[in-house]
Amino acid sequence: QVQLVESGGGLVQPGGSLRLSCAASGSIFSIAAMGWYRQVPGSQRELVASTTSGDSTRYADSVKGRFTISRDSAQNTVYLQMNSLKPEDTAIYYCYGDIALDAGPTRFRYWGQGTQVTVSS
To answer: 73 — phi, psi (to 5°)?
Structure first.
C-alpha cells in the first residue's frame, strides 16, 4: 500500500554533516505530517524533528540549531539536514508519515525501515 524509503545514512566524523531523505509512495491521498525519530539500542525511540502540511516544524532540544527538516510535498519526500554532528547523534533514524488513504478523516502512521547514522572519529 504505502512505503517509506529512507536514504543518506552512514559514517561521519564529529563536526561533519549528513542529509537524510525519505520518500513516501503508494496509495496516498494526503500527508498530514512527516518527520524523523531516532533510536539507540536499549533506549526508547525519540522524536528528532517533524513538519506538518502547514509547514510548521518542531525539533528536539538536543538538535535545535544543528538539524533542519524540510519537505517537498509534490514529491512526498522529507529531508533532514544534519550539521555539526556529535557522537551522541549516533542512532538508527526512522522517518514517518501520517498518511490519509482517502478523503475521510482517518490517518495512519507509516514508518521507514531505518537508516544507521554513526558519528565517530
So the answer is: -65, -30
Cα 37 from chain centre: 6
Could you tell me if 99 and 7 are in contact, meaning their C-beta atoms sit under 8 angstroms apart? no
pLDDT at 54: 82
Q: Is the pLDDT of residue 99 over 90?
A: yes
Cα-Cα-Cα-Cα torsion 71, 26, 47, 115, nearest 10 degrees, comes to -90
Q: ∠ at Cα 108 (2, 20), nearest 5°? A: 60
DSSP 8-class letter at 88: G
φ, ψ of residue 22 to 5 degrees: the values are -145, 115
Residue count (the chain): 121
- Asked if residue 19 lies in contact with residue 80, where contact means CB atoms within 8 angstroms, the answer is yes
* Predicted confidence (pLDDT) per residue in 19-71, tens digit: 999 999 999 999 999 999 999 999 999 999 999 988 899 999 999 999 999 99
What 43-52 contacts at long range (C-beta under 8 Å, 24+ apart), as own/partner pairs, is 45/94, 48/80, 48/93, 49/80, 51/78
